[in-house]
Structure formats: C-alpha cells, structure tokens
Amino acid sequence: MKPKLVILTTNFGTNFSGGSRATCEVFSRIQDQFEKITVLGTVIGDHRFQNLEFIKVNHWLNTYQAIKKLEDDLTIFYGDFYNSFLLGVAQVPFIFTYHDNWPELAKLNIKSRFQSLFYNTAYYYIFRKAKVLITVSDFKKKTLEKYAEKVYLIPNGFDSSAQYTTEVTQARGQVLMVGNIDDRKYALALKLFGHIKERDPISIDIYGHIVNKNLAKNLSKYPFVSLKGFVEHIPYASYKLLLHTSFSESFGLIFYEAIYNRVPVLTFNVGGAPEIISKENGRMVQAYNIETMYDVLKKMTLNPFQANRETVSSFSWENTSSTYQNLFRDVG
To answer: Which pairs from 327-330 meet CB under 8 Å and 24+ separation?
Structure first.
C-alpha cells in the first residue's frame, strides 16, 4: 500500500518563495508515489497536484491538532519551514528540508538580530528532532551537520522544458534582478544603485512580489530601475545579465534559470553561490564590496558574454525529485 504524505508549510505554491516553489516542484513530480497528499498551510497558490487536500491552519494550536489528527502508521510527515518545530512537539517522525538563511541572516540588521533569537532556536530544535535532514547546498550542509549525524545534500533544480523566456526583442535589455523585494535581497541593491551614474549605460528591471513597500519605493526612485512585479515566466533571454545582491543565499534557483538561458550572473560570494557560479557562467564579488560590484557591473554590461548552459545542465527538477523519491523509499 502506498504511504500518505503530509506537508507542513506556510505558503504553498510555485508563485511564492524559492523554498515553497521547490516543495511543489519536487512532490508534484512524484505525487503518484503517495496514496494521498495533504498540505497544512496558511495560503495555497499555483500548483500541479491532482490529488491534494489543503487544510488551512491559522495558528500553532490548530496546526498541532491537525498534525495529531493525521498521524498514523501509513503517513509520512514532511516540513520545509520553521513551523516544522510543531512536528517535533507532536512527536511524529518527519523529514525536513532546510531552505532558510539563518543563522547568517542575523547579521543583516538589528531587526534580524532580534528575529534570530526565535528562528535559530526553532530551527536548531527541528534539526535535532527530524528523522531525516535534507539541505540544498554544501554550504548549508556544514551548518546542519553540527546538529545531526546524517544530512542529505539534494540541490534544487529548474525545469529545462519550461518556457522561461517570452519573445526576445532585437534590442536586448541590460540587467534584470529576480526575487521578492525584501531587505535580504535588496538592501544592498540600494547601496549599489547609489553608485550608478546617469552616464552609465545601465537599466535594471526587477521581478518579484513586493514584501517591503518602503524598500520598493526607494528602489523605484532611481530612473534606471523598473519594478515589473511577479511574473510566472521571466524573460531571462531578453537581458544581458542577472544581478543578484542578496545578503545571504542558501541556494540559487534563479541562477540555474538565468544560466540555462545563457545569461551570466553577477553576485556576491555568499552562501551556496560558489557551488554554482564559475568564470564560464558569471562573476562573484567579495561579499558586500559595493565598489567592486559596481565596477564589475559596468564591465559586464559593456562587454557582455553568454553563460555556458552546460554548467547547470544536471540541475533539473527531474533529477532532484528522483533523488527525493529514492530517499523517501529508503527511510520511509
């Protein structure tokens, strides 16, 4: 008999954060391996599941109650966010994939430092309680191995069959940035934009949901910046360069997509970036060196090159989901 799967998350869908999208991409491809899939979350978005039950949970108490109600010998519990500490509290065996950016995110600002008191505590509890721990980068694997004997490294992927690009105009744009507009991804962009001069041949389009309205307002004040909002299919091939100014990054899903479309990536050397970025597909700048980032940005826009898509050819969602399937079978 096939097992049942319960996924504990917050936002569930391909139109949310990278972690939410990864969960949907993986399990939608192996959904036939489960008798039933139930999602406990706060919001449901776009997905490709056929046999899915979504149970809306609004607070920790009713989440805990839902977990206990669904518990049986045929159910596998899976989590991808900090609220998975409730799986430990409920004392059910669970598998957990770590997508988040703590503890390094505590250094972003004072607000993050205070937030880290909760998030670090919650995640460290999860790491100790999970039956199986999965990480998406070797960078994160080193963190998790401090708390668990066995950690599985399964990188995220991208859909090589998807149409990421729209119609490509003959006059290729300059630079795109991709990701929800929040402090982690764009606080450093504001500092960088302050160095860009009117005479610089640089225009920047930003794709992503607006999380921090004040930050979005400040970004849009620059005449060379255009906020495009969230779009399902990002026209990577219409641009010369993907600019990434994230303070921390556990994995680079959008790196794969850009490079596959032969668009090079410019990023700080943070998190899992060195595991993806090479001279063949982009450039890395010493972490948070804004002056050097500005210099390299100018050089890359004036002397564009095509990224070698073969450097990311093995990072497919098919490979990722197949690895998850084998792991679930072995430990289930």
So the answer is: 327/95, 327/132, 327/134, 327/152, 327/154, 328/30, 328/33, 328/76, 328/95
